[in-house]
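Researcher: Please translate sequence to structure tokens.
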Amino acid sequence: MKKKFNNMSVDQLVKFFTYFCLGAFALSIIIPLGWSILASIKHKSEFYGNPWALPEGFYWQNFQKAFVEAKMGEYFLNSIFVTALALVILLAVAIPAAYVLARFDFKGNKLINGIFSAGLFINVNYIVVPIFLLVLDGEKLVRQMFALPMSMTVFLDSKVVLALIYAATHLPFTIYLLSNYLKTISKSYEEAAEIDGCSYFQTLKKVIIPMAKPSIITVILFNFLSFWNEYIIALTMLPNSSKTLPVGLLNLFQVQKTATDYGALYAGLVIVMVPTIILYIIVQKKLTEGMSIGGLKE
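Model: Translation complete:
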């Protein structure tokens, strides 16, 4: 009995420690998030008193300043366009590629899988300069071929090119995750689809993609967060045209820091955070589904 009691005590202690760590981690996220939301509706005079005090009223002009005067509304639309286009391009390439690499044996399969796996260890921020030089070389080549004026840009300052770069740099992670999940799906479903006369594309569309929804949704969420919050590549590739939200947020910070209008600054932060929170709320049920569940249940 004493041994059993000691085992139960240890289990309870481990459980308490686990919940304590999880609670502390949750508070470390919730408190700054809540404080930023409250700060976004404060008048700038309230920041000179107690910064932890609740707002005296709802000063919605902060969001108006951020959207209109600081052009955060324009940057918001740019980020939506770039992120959505990058996700569409990424999924259009990664899903068929992962399907082929996971379900078919052909010469060079292991080599291609190895190359994509090696790409997981490349930090995109370290190759920004080579990417920028490639874009500049492309600009020079197009100008020479079509005799374009120097003031006209084709690849630089292009949101479409920025979306292509985002999609290309996240292919290794996406293909690796999707292919590992597809390997867990039983081939019985594909055999049944083949008997019904489905082509490979129809099998992918009607069988594989619906069964791989948890993995696809996880990929969408992770890549959305990465594209939405990316700063260095957007700053490099869009030097003159309208910015994306992270770059615009830095401009807002520099302007409002000089004007000591912290309410508008925190309103800009909330504008950046809201889409990610909404997306997580929408997909959280699918996201928590097991990633290693196979196609057949025993």
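Researcher: Any highlights?
Model: The chain has one domain: 60-287.
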